[in-house]
């Protein structure tokens, strides 16, 4: 039976760790929910350019919606919610014939994009049935990477064939592209029986090119979805500079910082710039938001978004390693210095070369597989999490602050820290390849960023620490660490955004490290967004808020 009913696949040690930390039932619900797209699409209105009610009616016209989007949160009047629908049943037998007869198999990244409303592009296609022509209506299924591998078990261009009656391999047989008849398959070209797509069918779409053209092309639209299991509004390319997609918890994190006009605010890991530009928007464009990130392409993305939104005069994007952002001025407490041994995965305060926590799971467009890059995984790699430009063009500004040095200690009125993280809360996500050791290593690295953030924050200033992961080693354990290490100067506060509800933090002890998490009272101060919570229906996220009570000089 062709259905969509998967659970996120984890490495065995991570599966055991999260199940112990969250509880078995909660973990199972979360693993199911992570495979589904949120049906409440959050759209932030750029109030520097358009009023929320005007944006709502314009969106209704652009998307041909029956009803105008609403702004359901009184404390976030600039956040509109577009409702999605699903799941729907797809009659594959009548639309596409028997299994394997007219079918296209896509990679995981393309499959996840389809769930969010995208069509299928050439780079995302792995295999297809024989003799397909442009205009054919085909079933679309997704193949996942095999355990411990980046390979799905399907070589690009293979031919799907209907399975023999009673065959155990539900994927069907195949031959290399261009072969009209089956031939003896080599080990390299064989599709193993473990490639099981029965619970990974995503709907049906109409081919925009024939089979041979599809596998000879390097780019282009391969298939346009017509029958989806989820109908999620696609906002890409519309109302550029006036709206942008940004997840509810990401908006709450910026709102919790409560920046005021004229302030000097720091966003330590800012790409692609969603939170930095929202901070500038909340300040009415008056004041300065320093937006840091490590690479020039990320800085250019921040600059492009700020230019789109008309906030370039307020947002200053600077290329810098945020762990080195606090200058050596003044006589600060030695408690701010964090040093790690090689066993911790760090050397000299920097990530060791080859350390697993240096992997980055970058954002994926439909049809493009994910990649592992040079830093750590963060919400900044997912535009739907931190917020990114709706359009695809890149606009550049003339402002260049890339050569600025470290900042004076205690020189920022407010600091937002959304560090590189394991991104285990992103939806939809069908597999995660992180090991437990890599996740624990990320948690330790984030403490270096916390040390820099606290050093840079003025007395009386507020710091928000947030992640887009459900991993307690990167969330509650780091809040506990900050309070134990810097409690003389730091106080945990409730996340104060009226009308927004979330789950409390976790209490107890980390099963892997033995470190404590939060007390019951502290747990009520933080926001933990559960992907399985149907009320918010958003990504998994964690938010904590601190006030610096006194100077460290």
UniProtKB/TrEMBL annotation:
Domain of life: Eukaryota
GO molecular function, one term: RNA binding
TM region(s), chain numbering: none
Domain SAM-dependent MTase RsmB/NOP-type: 167-549
Positions of S-adenosyl-L-methionine binding: 269-275, 293, 321, 418
Gene Ontology biological-process annotations: RNA methylation
Compositionally biased tracts (Polar residues): 369-380
CDD domains on file: AdoMet_MTases
Residue numbers annotated as active site: 468
InterPro entries found in the cross-reference section: MeTrfase_RsmB-F_NOP2_cat, MeTrfase_RsmB-F_NOP2_dom, PUA, PUA-like_sf, PUA_sf, RCMT, SAM-dependent_MTases_sf
Assigned keywords, A-Z: Methyltransferase, RNA-binding, S-adenosyl-L-methionine, Transferase
Location of the region described as Disordered in the Swiss-Prot/TrEMBL record: 155-193, 347-405
Family classification: Belongs to the class I-like SAM-binding methyltransferase superfamily. RsmB/NOP family.
Protein name: SAM-dependent MTase RsmB/NOP-type domain-containing protein
């Amino acid at each position: 039976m062709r259905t969509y009913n998967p659970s996120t696949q984890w490495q065995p040690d991570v599966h055991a760790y999260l199940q112990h930390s969250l509880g078995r039932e909660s973990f199972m619900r979360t693993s199911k929910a992570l495979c589904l797209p949120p049906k409440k699409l959050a759209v932030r209105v750029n109030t520097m350019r358009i009023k929320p009610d005007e944006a709502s009616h314009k969106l209704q016209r652009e998307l041909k919606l029956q009803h105008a989007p609403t702004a359901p949160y009184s404390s976030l009047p600039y956040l509109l919610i577009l409702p999605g629908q699903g799941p729907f049943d797809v009659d594959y037998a009548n639309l596409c014939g028997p299994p394997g007869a007219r079918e296209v198999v896509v990679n995981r990244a393309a499959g996840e994009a389809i769930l969010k409303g995208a069509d299928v592009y050439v780079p995302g296609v792995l295999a297809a049935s024989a003799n397909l022509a442009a205009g054919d209506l085909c079933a679309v299924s997704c193949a996942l990477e095999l355990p411990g591998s980046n390979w799905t078990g399907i070589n690009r261009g293979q031919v799907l064939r209907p399975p023999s009656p009673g065959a155990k391999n539900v994927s069907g047989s195949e031959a290399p592209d261009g072969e009209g008849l089956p031939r003896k398959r080599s080990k390299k070209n064989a599709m193993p029986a473990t490639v099981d797509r029965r619970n990974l069918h995503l709907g049906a779409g109409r081919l925009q090119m024939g089979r041979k053209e599809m596998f000879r092309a390097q780019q282009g639209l391969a298939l346009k979805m017509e029958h989806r299991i989820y109908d999620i509004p696609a906002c890409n390319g519309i109302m550029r500079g006036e709206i942008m997609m940004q997840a509810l918890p990401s908006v709450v994190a910026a709102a919790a910082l409560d920046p005021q006009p004229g302030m000097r605010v720091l966003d330590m890991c800012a790409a692609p710039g969603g939170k930095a530009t929202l901070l500038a928007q909340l300040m009415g464009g008056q004041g300065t938001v320093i937006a840091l990130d490590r690479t020039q392409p990320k800085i250019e993305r921040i600059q492009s978004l700020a230019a789109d939104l008309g906030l370039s005069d307020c947002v200053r994007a600077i290329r810098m390693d945020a762990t080195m952002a606090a200058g050596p001025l003044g006589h600060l407490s030695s408690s701010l210095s964090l040093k790690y041994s090689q066993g911790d995965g760090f050397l000299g305060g920097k990530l060791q070369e080859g350390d697993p926590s240096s992997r980055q799971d970058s954002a994926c467009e439909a049809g493009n597989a994910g990649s592992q890059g040079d830093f750590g995984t963060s919400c900044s790699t997912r535009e739907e999490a931190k917020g990114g430009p709706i359009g695809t063009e890149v606009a550049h500004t003339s402002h260049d602050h890339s050569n600025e040095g470290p900042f004076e200690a205690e020189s920022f009125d407010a600091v937002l820290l959304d560090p590189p993280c394991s991104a285990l809360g992103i939806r939809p996500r069908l597999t995660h390849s992180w090991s437990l050791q890599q996740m624990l290593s990320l948690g330790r690295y984030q403490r270096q960023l916390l040390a820099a953030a606290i050093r840079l924050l003025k007395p009386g200033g507020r710091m928000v620490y947030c992640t887009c992961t459900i991993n307690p080693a990167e969330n509650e354990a780091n809040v506990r660490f900050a309070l134990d290490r810097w409690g003389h100067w730091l106080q945990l506060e409730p996340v104060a955004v009226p009308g927004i509800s979330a789950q409390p933090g976790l209490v107890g002890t980390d099963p892997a490290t033995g470190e404590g998490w939060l007390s019951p009272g502290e747990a009520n101060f933080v926001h933990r967004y559960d992907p399985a919570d149907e009320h918010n229906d958003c990504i998994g996220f964690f938010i904590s808020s601190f006030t610096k009570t006194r100077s460290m000089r």
